Amino acid sequence: MQGRGNPISREETNTKKSEERRSELLGIALELFAKFGYHNTKISDIVKQAGVAQGTFYWHFKSKEAIALEIIASGRAEIAKVIGQGYRSHSGTVEDMVTASELLLTSLFRFAGSNRYFMELLYAGAGNDEVIRSAVNETRNEMERAFRRNIERAVELQMLPANIDSSLRAMLLVSLIEGVISRWLFGPRETESELSRKTAEELAAETARFEFFGLLGTTKNTANEVKKGSSK
Fold first, then answer.
1. In this structure, are 186 and 146 located in the same domain?
2. Residue 83 has pLDDT above 70, yes or no
3. Contact criterion met (CB below 8 Å) for 203 and 213
4. Angle, vertex CA 47, rays to CA 41 and CA 50, nearest 5
5. Which of 36, 151, 162, 172 could crosslink 166 through cysteines, CB 3.0-4.6 Å?
6. Do 26 and 105 share a structural domain?
7. Per-position DSSP letters for 189-231, written without gaps between them
8. Do 173 and 125 share a structural domain?
9. Which residues constitute the domain of residue 26?
């Protein structure tokens, strides 16, 4: 039969358009939340930028809170997936751990660089709304738990000492990473600083070395050699 079209194809087309519209609303809401804060962003601002009626928004989302919570939950899942790559299946040397950490941090910094608005929401955009702030805090807590699982796994494999405080180490590590990401993406930075020009790979290499070897950025043996040389 001609002229009627394929009803399945029309349904698929409509579904695709609906999904695209939903994704567009999510992206616009995220941008506005990051730039102006959750509290200062209204649904009317979101639909105005999207060029749709408020009814379209409510077709996809129950409220402003609902769209914000979905944005945060989606970002949380992506971050957990990235950090989960560091869960080791077998033992290795210190150099193996440094290399693995560098790869993990590269993925995490790439995610942060590609999702700048989400990171800004995570660090500064929740405002005073208790529900949204709680969701943001849970995302940051999940990062800490994911790193703690990686550390505990390394202890199981005898790659790290059995007596370390894995919760404290995870907290210190996440604080380091959050600080690096925040300064890298948002500042403040010294005028002559080249931090903003560093790639995710360069930043990951520096952070991984600091994670394992501290300010010297060297192994213990090399550090001893430096100490001996300075005492001559």
1. yes
2. yes
3. no
4. 115
5. 151
6. no
7. --TT--GGG--HHHHHHHHHHHHHHGGGTS-HHHHHHHHHHHH
8. yes
9. 1-61
Write the burial class of residue 215 (CB in 10 Å: 0-12 exposed, 13-18 middle, 19+ buried): exposed
Closest CA to 85 of 149, 138, 32, 152: 149
Q: Residue 224's pLDDT band (boundaries 50, 70, 90)?
A: very low
Shared domain check, 129 and 52? no
Q: Give the pLDDT mean for 196-222.
A: 84
H/E stretch holding 60 reads helix 54-60
Note whether 31 and 70 are same-domain residues: no
Do both 194 and 160 map to the same domain? yes
Per cent of the chain over pLDDT 90 is 69
Cα 135 → chain centroid: 14
Residue pointed to by tokens 């193996």 = 96
Q: Is the pLDDT of residue 227 over 90?
A: no
What's the number of domains the chain is made of? 2
138/180 Cα distance (integer angstroms): 20
> Is 181 found in the same domain as 91?
yes
Tokens 């903003």 map to which residue? 196
DSSP-assigned letters across all residues of 110-178? HHHHHTHHHHHHHHH--TT-HHHHHHHHHHHHHHHHHHHHHHHHHHHTTSS-TTS-HHHHHHHHHHHHH
Residues 77 and 51 in one domain: no
CA pair distance 225, 93, nearest whole angstrom = 21
Length of the chain in terms of residues written: 232
